[in-house]
Write a structure and sequence with these properties.
binds fe (ii) ion, alpha/beta, 7 helices, Metallo-beta-lactamase, Chain A, seven-stranded mixed beta sheet, about 240 residues, six-stranded mixed beta sheet, 13 strands
């Protein structure tokens, strides 16, 4: 059945389920990333960390019912984003899992009982919820997708995994393919250059949350040059946009 979605949603809640650092002291950290996204129309898990048991523990503590997930998105093939898949698959067999079209995980996720959806170009998967088309990092054939949510007011939230293709290229693609006001970018930036971070500001990103593999250098650079733009995240951080 073909479903037409609206280009926006009324609100979005983003919860960092697990990250390299904590925002809430009662939660686990891990070398990895997993972010839960909820809108009035859909519940999505973006990446699944390294460690399924810690991920499930944190989700329970945060009141997230994994069995109600409508879909999973895996940004790229690295283990610190797909390591928890086996544990998550137990909660949502048969449900769609969006992966880069060039992913090596297709057979693996089929064997876990999930339904792979290879993503080449930007795809609207629910009202205002977009899987951002794959970009190549140019190294070792690694491709990466992202997630962007647009609300009625035009505000855009972008989630990224490791940003191997470059965080500024991901945000440029989001603005080109979807458009809107980039109020927040959250995720791993993979030790970005100062050029990448300056470019985010130039593109109008209002709040930048360097999680996971972003590195201390990025945090220091942002806090020195753009202190008002730097956001603090970590396991348990919640962002609500409407
Ligand atoms: Fe990573
Ligand atoms: Fe990575």
């Amino acid at each position: 059945m073909f479903v037409m979605y609206r280009s926006y949603t009324d609100w979005v809640k983003v919860i960092v389920v697990i990250d390299n650092n904590v925002y809430r002291e009662d939660l686990y950290t891990s070398w990895g990333l997993s972010i839960y996204v909820e809108t009035p129309g859909v519940r999505v898990l973006f990446d699944t960390d390294t460690d399924g048991s810690r991920l499930v523990y944190n989700a329970e503590k945060l009141g997230i019912d994994l069995s109600t997930l409508n879909a999973i998105v895996i940004s790229h093939d690295h283990y610190d984003h797909s390591g928890g898949l086996e544990a998550i698959a137990n909660f949502c067999r048969g449900r769609p899992i969006y992966v880069p079209a060039h992913s090596y995980l297709l057979d693996y996720v089929c064997n876990l009982g999930l339904t792979p959806v290879p993503v080449h170009s930007t795809t609207l998967i629910a009202d205002g919820v977009y899987v951002v088309g794959e970009l190549s990092s140019g190294a070792f054939g690694l491709y990466e997708i992202a997630l962007a949510i647009k609300v009625r007011s035009g505000k855009l939230v972008t989630l990224c995994g490791c940003s191997h293709p470059g965080i500024e290229r991901i945000v440029e693609k989001v603005l080109k393919d979807i458009g809107g006001i980039p109020v927040a970018v959250i995720g791993g930036f993979h030790s970005p250059t100062s050029y990448s971070l300056d470019k985010l500001v130039e593109l109008g990103v209002e709040k930048i949350y360097p999680l996971h593999c972003s590195g201390l250098g990025a945090v220091r650079y942002l806090s020195r040059k753009y202190p008002e733009r730097l956001g603090t995240g970590g396991s348990g951080f919640v962002l609500y946009v409407e």
